[in-house]
């Protein structure tokens, strides 16, 4: 049960803010934004930063989803895992095995050298709060701008996972079905 219930009957300010967020298949705002809508200004800024990565970011979709899944798995965020499994598979082209391995840092997988360097970057930052010079240099081909964006992406999804788990945001029904499909689904 969530500590803070999602806004289900928004006032005008909340309605305007929610109209610019991710919607569930039934057209309602997803639970994380419906919950953050209690503070519309904060929700707008969280949505703006998340939207930046999705629309204007320099990190390619496949790599972005690998990073998000790794953060979700490391932070044990079923909510983010559920939201991004579909994107990773259907939009980013990750295989089921890649999705599972991205979610579990200990899972064996034959990653490409570039994917392995990227995931090691994520793992090191989440484990230590920093990246070594060697890890930073391992993504030299990304350039400083993309590596900086990568740091913010990792931090954003870690922050979101902590907020979601701290509040107890419930899975959206469409996501819950993806994570625990009914027999025959």
From TrEMBL:
Protein source organism: Mycolicibacterium diernhoferi
Signal peptide (residue range): none
MF annotations from Gene Ontology: peroxiredoxin activity
PANTHER family reported in the protein's UniProt record: 4-CARBOXYMUCONOLACTONE DECARBOXYLASE FAMILY PROTEIN (AFU_ORTHOLOGUE AFUA_6G11590), CARBOXYMUCONOLACTONE DECARBOXYLASE-LIKE DOMAIN-CONTAINING PROTEIN
Name this polypeptide is given: Carboxymuconolactone decarboxylase family protein
A Pfam family the protein falls into: CMD
Domain Carboxymuconolactone decarboxylase-like intervals: 40-113
